[in-house]
Design brief:
It is built from 13 helices and 3 strands. It is an all-alpha fold.
C-alpha cells in the first residue's frame, strides 16, 4: 500500500524533489508540512503531492516563487489566471528570442575563431556586439536607409553573415598592418578595393553610384546631415569600433583619397 504520510526524506524520494528544495519551500511558506508533535520533524501527507506538482508546474511556466506563493492557497484557477499566463507567454517569447540570438552568436563566433585561429580582443568584441544588436541596428536603419537596402544589409542566411564578418575582420587587420602608409600606396588601394567589393556584394550592387542611392535622405540638407550623424553615433554606441583614434584618422584620410580617385577615374572614362 502507498503510504499516507511521509518524512521529509521519504517525501523527497517519493516525489523526486530534493530534501533541500523541500526545506526551502517550507522556509518560504510555499509548501509547509505539519510537524510531529513529539519530534518536531516535518510530516508530509500524500495529498500534498498535488501542491508540490502545482509549484513545479508554475515554475515550469516561468513564474517566480513569489508569484507562485499567491496561488498556493487557492483551490481553483479562474479567468484571471489567463492574464498571468499571457504575461508569462510574452516573457518566455522574449527569453526564447534572446536564447536564439545567443545560440547563433556562439555558432558564428566559433566559425570565426576556427577560420582565423586567433582574433584581437577588440575586434572580436566589436563583432560580438554587432551580432547581438542586429535587430536594433535594423530598426535604426529604417530612418535613414531604403527598405530594399536594409534587407540586404541584414542578410537572412548565416553564410552571408559569416562572409561579411570574416571580410570585416580581414579589413580591420589590414588597417592595423598598413597604418601610416601613404594614401596612394598600392597595398592601401588594394585593401579598400577588397573592402568595397565586399560591401557591393553584400548589397548585391554593381557600382558606388548604387551604393550612394541606398539612402533616402538628401545628405546635403543640414537637417538630414544632423539626422545621419545621430544615426552613426547611435550605431557606434551599439557596436564599438575596434580601431584606435589614430587608425580611424588614418582610415578616414586614405578613404577620402580613394573615393576621390574612384570618382575622378569615372569622370575620365565618361
Amino acid at each position: 500500500m502507498v503510504k499516507e504520510t511521509f518524512s521529509v526524506s521519504e517525501f523527497a524520494a517519493y516525489t523526486g524533489v530534493s530534501v533541500r528544495t523541500l526545506h526551502y519551500y517550507d522556509e518560504k511558506n510555499i509548501l509547509k508540512p505539519k510537524r510531529d508533535t513529539n519530534t518536531g520533524h516535518r510530516v508530509y501527507e500524500k495529498e500534498e503531492t498535488i501542491q508540490l506538482h502545482k509549484i513545479m508546474t508554475l515554475k515550469f511556466l516561468g513564474m517566480t516563487l513569489e508569484d507562485i506563493k499567491e496561488y498556493m492557497h487557492s483551490t481553483t484557477f479562474d479567468l484571471g489566471f489567463i492574464d498571468t499566463l499571457k504575461l508569462q507567454e510574452s516573457k518566455l517569447k522574449k527569453d526564447k528570442e534572446q536564447i536564439e540570438i545567443a545560440l547563433e552568436t556562439i555558432q558564428r563566433t566559433v566559425y570565426v575563431l576556427e577560420n582565423e585561429k586567433e582574433v584581437d580582443h577588440a575586434m572580436l568584441v566589436s563583432l560580438l556586439a554587432s551580432m547581438q544588436t542586429e535587430k536594433k541596428q535594423q530598426e535604426l536603419s529604417k530612418e535613414i536607409i531604403k527598405e530594399e537596402a536594409i534587407q540586404k544589409m541584414f542578410p537572412a542566411t548565416a553564410q552571408d553573415k559569416l562572409n561579411w564578418e570574416i571580410g570585416l575582420l580581414t579589413f580591420f587587420k589590414q588597417v592595423r598592418r598598413l597604418l601610416g602608409k601613404p594614401v596612394d600606396h598600392p597595398e592601401v588601394k588594394q585593401m579598400l578595393d577588397d573592402f568595397y567589393q565586399l560591401t557591393l556584394e553584400l548589397f548585391d550592387m554593381d557600382s558606388f553610384e548604387e551604393l550612394a542611392e541606398m539612402f533616402f535622405l538628401d545628405l546635403d540638407d543640414a537637417v538630414n546631415e544632423a539626422r545621419f550623424a545621430a544615426y552613426i553615433q547611435e550605431v557606434e554606441r551599439l557596436v564599438p569600433t575596434p580601431l584606435t583614434k589614430e587608425e580611424e584618422a588614418w582610415l578616414e584620410q586614405v578613404t577620402f583619397h580613394y573615393m576621390d580617385s574612384v570618382w575622378d577615374e569615372k569622370e575620365r572614362r565618361g
